[in-house]
Write a structure and sequence with these properties.
The chain is α+β, with helices and mostly antiparallel strands. The protein folds into two domains: 177 residues, Nuclear Transport Factor 2, Chain: A, CATH 3.10.450; 104 residues, Nuclear Transport Factor 2, Chain: A (Roll). The chain is built from four helices and 18 strands. The strands form five sheets. Strands 1-2-3-4-5-14 form a six-stranded antiparallel sheet. Strands 6, 7, 8, 9, 10 and 11 form a six-stranded antiparallel sheet that branches. Strands 12-13 form a two-stranded antiparallel sheet. The chain is elongated. The relative contact order is 0.17.
């Protein structure tokens, strides 16, 4: 066998191995749902600021059998921000997803999981978090940067109002979750959500306590600095919580970092992003880009990454696949016969898209 033929055979074997060792389950299958919920809970557990995110749609899933025999689940999920702060003990399944008209925030994540001790465990992920500007209307509330001067004055005014009604306890600002404004008759109206904690005050200067026994709370306020309403729900110190799939979520703990200087780590940031990545290259299953159309490499026979060839299973993820409606067989052996050839009609094949899965919210 000449070298060229040998090379072709090796490449075909490598591609064949890749195809045989990657499965494409349906995005709405039970195993896809299990992997997506495990990814959702893990990502929320890594998210120490802002709000919990709920699974909206499974964009794609691949199960890769690796040389050691273990299966790696590569799942792409679309998440939506809820109104539950990460420090709120409410399970994410019971949280309300923010509607588009209130500027929904979306997280697109690629996550690699492996089954350890019977449970799916996240090994690597990449996320990007963006605002959804669809369905915004004239006069609807719009998000403000978390360091917006006038809105922060409103936050402090509403917190002072809350402290006037507390007994023997003063609360200080830990973090601003989100701020927005709406133009109404008479000028702008503000909306704010923020986290507070018991404070130690000296000469009218209050600093939030950071030990593990303080009471903390989540407040929402609306109006303007001179006239507003404010509601706060407080929580005592709680033990670590368990979310869906028995994933630990953050509890009230000193590990929570207070944004008391500037109240935002980035000027102009309008929402709290998910953690952007964790060991994305360690498995070799996440590409540089986290876009949903990425090609996931698998380990070939020689131990190097081999590209996965395009297959019908992969192509059926698109609902726009064109299907033949007939076949024509024609003799072109040189005769000048112009007789219309017979057309063999075939039944069109209706393909149900494997992915993406159903949309849970919008």
């Amino acid at each position: 066998m000449n070298p060229l033929s040998l090379t072709v055979v090796v490449v075909l074997l490598a591609v064949g191995y890749a195809q045989l060792n990657i499965l494409h389950p349906e995005c709405d299958s039970p195993e896809a749902e299990e992997a997506a919920l495990a990814a959702q809970d893990y990502l929320n557990a890594q998210h120490s600021h802002g709000y919990k995110y709920a699974l909206n749609r499974i964009e794609d899933i691949k199960i890769v059998t690796q040389p050691d025999g273990d299966n790696a689940y590569v799942v792409e999920v679309d998440l939506l921000e809820t109104d539950c702060h990460v420090l709120d003990p409410t399970p994410v399944a019971n949280c309300t997803v923010r509607p588009k008209v209130l500027t929904a925030v979306e997280g697109d994540c690629d996550v690699v999981l492996k089954r350890v001790g019977g449970k799916l465990t996240v090994k690597a992920f990449k996320c990007k978090t963006e605002e959804s500007t669809e369905d915004l209307c004239v006069g609807c509330p719009i998000l403000l940067p978390l360091n917006h001067t006038t809105a922060l004055e409103f936050v402090r005014a509403s917190l002072a109002t809350f402290n006037n009604f507390t007994v023997n306890t003063t609360y200080a600002l830990l973090e601003v979750g989100r701020m927005s404004t709406q133009i109404v008759s008479g000028g702008p109206r503000y909306f704010a959500e923020y986290v507070v904690a018991e404070a130690n005050c000296t000469n009218d200067v209050c600093a939030p306590l950071t030990d593990g026994i303080v009471t903390r709370g989540i407040c929402s306020a609306k109006g303007v600095s001179a006239a507003h309403t404010v509601n706060c729900k407080t929580f005592p110190v709680m033990p670590p919580l368990q979310d869906a799939n028995s994933t630990a979520v953050p509890s009230w703990s000193p590990a929570f970092h207070a944004h008391t200087v500037g109240l935002s780590r980035k000027h102009g940031l309008r929402h709290h992003k998910l953690t952007s990545h964790h060991d994305p290259h360690v498995t070799g299953l996440l590409s540089v880009s986290s876009e949903s159309d990425e090609v996931v490499p698998v380990v070939a026979l020689n131990g190097t990454a081999a590209p996965v060839a395009s297959t019908l299973a992969a192509d059926t993820s698109s609902a726009s696949v064109e299907l033949p409606v007939g076949m024509v067989k024609r003799d072109v052996s040189g005769s000048a016969d112009t007789t219309v050839p017979n057309v063999v009609a075939t039944e069109p094949v209706l393909l149900i898209p494997r992915c993406p899965g159903r949309v849970r919210f919008f």
